[in-house]
Amino acid sequence: MTTDAAEPRTDGVPPHAGHGPVAQTSPATPGRLRRPPNLGLDRFSGLYVWAAAIVIFAVWVPDTFLTTANARVVAGDQAITAMLAIGLVLPLAAGVFDLSCAATMGFSVTVVMWLQVHGVNALLAALITIAVGAGIGALNGFIVVELRVNSFIGTLGVSSILTGAAYWVTNGQQIVEGVSVNFLDFGGFQWWGLPLPFYLMLVLAAVVYIVIEHTTVGRYLYAVGGNPQAARLAGVRDRRLVFGALLTSATVAAFTGVVLASKLGSASYDVGLTYLLPAFSAVFLGSTQIRAGRVNVLGTLVAIYLLATGVKGLQLAGAPVFVNDLFNGLALVVAVALAGRSARRT
Amino acid sequence: MPGSALRVKGLSKTFPGQRALADVDLDIAPGEIRGLVGQNGSGKSTLIKVLAGYHAPDPGAAVEVAGMALHLGAPGAGDAAGLRFVHQDLGLVPSLDTVDNLALGRGYETGPTGLVRWRRERVAARSALERLGYDFSVRRPVGELSVSERTAVAVARALSRHATPPRVLVLDEPTANLPDTEVDRLFSLVRSVRDSGVAVLFVSHHLDEVFVLCDTVSVLRDGRHVATVPVFGLEENALVELMIGRRLEQHDAPASVAGAAGEVVVTVSELTGAVLAGVSFEVRAGEVVGIAGITGSGREEITSAIFGGVPRGGTVSVAGTALPPSRPDLSMAAGIGLVPAERHANAAFLEHSLRENVSIADHGPFRRHGLLSRGRERSDVAAWLERLDVRPPGTERRLDALSGGNQQKVVLARWLRRTPRVLLLDEPTQGVDVGAKEEIHTLVDRAAAGGAGVVVASSDDTELARLCGRVIVLRGGRAAEELHRPDLDADRITALTVRKASA
Asked: Do residues A278 and A219 both lie within one domain?
């Protein structure tokens, strides 16, 4: 039953199935070739699966899973990954990779801490760090737009450079002392039981959502991602746009780094890299959701919280630690493959 | 006649709503160079595609290669029978060298251990080129070779004996991208192929080349084989007459009102590009100017060069102000619009909605405080889709769900919405069915009547005759002739485009 719901069904689904959290497969009318009514079972499959996962774990491990504390933990833990992923939506919409985003975030964590250790006040340190992030974005833009290096390769190189630079700044040591108390309070602040990063993530998501869905810039990004030559011949300044997208994603990554630093209260040079794959997975998995076929903000959020719910539930049910990576990878491949299949069928 | 290298009998091909080939017979002897000529749409490319196994013909056709019946509609069958092709784009991989390109499709010679015998492959490649009269390093990437050298690689590959020796070599527009100096080299290559007993079918728009190279020439018109005649003693005018026939132009509606045109909207002077070598003209409000020319004449790049889509030299000015090159956005701001050729590459966002495809060139009307109003956008686009009778309608439908003709109308809507002062159209009815073609022509008439200066570049001379008040004929990158209504008809345009370059 539940595995059925995981598949984006487009055929033989009775019209009432969409109202329940789980798509019922009734034995009705397999022979009719009439096009089934569009229930959004493909576009919204993530939401259905998410609901199904919540129900399953609620039944399976009710004592620990179905608690407000658990909901808060899931919501808060994913805020950093979500911010990074939302920043990535912009370049990916234009068909450009920014593989350096996680390294930019990690580098920013070390920079903002190092500055404070060296006597810069917290706010100024944060602003400088974000400006440095913008500089990294400009470097990415220069490499991709002016030097015409493939974005996948160019930003991969920058990622490695930044990881090296972070090591250099920290000397390979963790920075744990000399950080302003206000800075740490900022990261530890809670409101209605949810940590501040969660709210910052919501604000960021709202801003990027509006830009990408409701402004000319968003349209142009998708146009460049869809067909750069056609976009250029329709008056879109594609090169400038790609530059701007890379600049923005790096700036967002740096901001995320500042938030992460205040949350962690420590900095080690390799803190960013573990976030790279989850962020990309979320955007790609998200591109099968809500606005199917396009990277988009809401789909990305659905993907992040769907995966987090699944992983958390399995952990509470007693699964070992490595289930995290296993589940994330599996879900990404299966979901994108299924979405590709249903797209080819139409 | 058992001696035929290639014999085609009763070949017809029907596409939905259109008969592309009707009962074509051809017979080519070994060691003969046969020209194949005809206007655009006469069925040449369909014939080649049927022979190559890309299209299956209508039932009842028979093709024999050296006396052996060919299994039709199966790619690879012709190759096995000795029927070989060199297509216009040559089909080479630029990053690979000659040895690798020759091995594509047939594989490498390997030793007992399964490793490639590179030395032997290189020697074989070099001698294959030598037989064609070429000598260059077989280890250089093909992309670095000159065009005639590349053509030689493609010919060598076509002639290499895999299972069977080659019997017939089909050359499809091999000179379209070739500079004049290299054409002679290609011709001696073709002659040496002929001398080895292979029959050659040479497809070309350039009649002068047919006269220099071919022994005989077959003419297709409207999908029918009208004549096969020896080239010796043939007059150029007689051949042109065979190509265009003696039909009446009944739908030749007077399009724009010549003479009553308004002020100059765009001035093009000394325009240069990859092929263009100094073309100057003016377009007035309300007039439709045609650009004719065979492939390689500069016709393909002229609209894009004016718009700034490809690099250009010379000046383009609108209302007295010169426009910077390579800036489509500024050209648009000055009031120019371009419906480019090859829609899928240059204009279509196939996976996006019709709404986004139409509105992309101007979001102004539905932007308030920087935000787009989707409701306003939808109603505006819906009105345009209705005005242009796009079917099926529906602003949220994906563009790739539409037929070619309707896709083209969507692209037209994108530009007509802006009410451009200058509307540039490149092959406006490429890949468009007959009904939609007429509708698009009407839309062009209306745009001109509404005061736009229109430039139409087209390889379809009937289309130019239908639309234009005057037609500029390009040859070798220059404006060679200019025809004005009423001395303007498709036959005359065709005759001028294929005339030997004398200038």
From this structure: no
